[in-house]
Design goal:
single chain; 199 residues; alpha/beta; Rossmann fold; ten-stranded mixed sheet; 31% helix; globular
Length: 199
């Protein structure tokens, strides 16, 4: 199961560090090219390597975490997704103004899904603050919770297995129409909650 990361901002980098901490290999890419990621790749070698967006997008599971307004450009012109898994870790808001994007009544995940036709989309890894993604998921005697949702059961099972490998406790919020709304930031009730599951 190969893993790619498109976006090297706070969430993408935190996901890469979490993977590297568990010895899981991945390719990370951004719009500026592999050379701009040499520092991060050196920090996280041998598990994380820098690549092109096309290389990252060719993986079995591809986490996308890009500034909201740059998503269409970041995902344009990529090879067919062919039923591969895209993890939508995006939030429709960005610095420095932190003004919510106009979604015209749609869920942000529905908009992302339109940008990756043919992919099986799973919403995950967007609701925890980056330092909690890279920190020890064993917390207060329990395990830190990561929510996920999607419409393809097999894709959700693969993402759930990855969440488990990273040491978190995954909670399936159901279909994208339900879970995507609960974890959408801003607007949903679950983002930024640091929840721990005991037992």
């Amino acid at each position: 199961m190969t893993i790619g990361i498109i976006g090297s901002g706070n969430i993408g980098s935190a996901f890469a560090r979490a993977l590297a901490g568990k010895g899981i290999a991945a390719t990370i890419a951004n719009s500026r090219g592999p050379a701009s990621l040499s520092g991060l790749a050196n920090e996280l070698k041998p598990h994380i390597k820098a690549g092109t967006v096309e290389e990252a997008a060719s993986a079995n599971i591809v986490l996308v975490a890009v500034n909201w307004t740059k998503l269409p450009e970041a995902l344009a012109g990529l090879p067919a997704w062919n039923n591969r898994i895209v993890i939508d870790a995006n939030n429709p808001i960005e610095a420095p103004l932190f003004k919510p994007a106009e979604l015209n009544g749609r869920l942000s995940s529905e908009i992302v899904a339109d940008l990756v036709p043919g992919a099986r989309l799973v919403k995950a890894f967007n609701h925890l603050q980056p330092h909690l993604l890279t920190g020890d998921p064993a917390a207060e005697g329990g395990r830190r919770v990561l929510f996920f949702s999607g419409d393809a059961a097999a894709a959700k099972a693969d993402v759930a297995a990855l969440i488990e490998r990273l040491g978190f406790f995954g909670i399936d919020l159901g279909a994208l129409s339900v879970g995507g709304r609960l974890v959408q930031f801003p607007g949903g009730p679950l983002p930024a909650l640091n929840l721990v599951r005991f037992g």
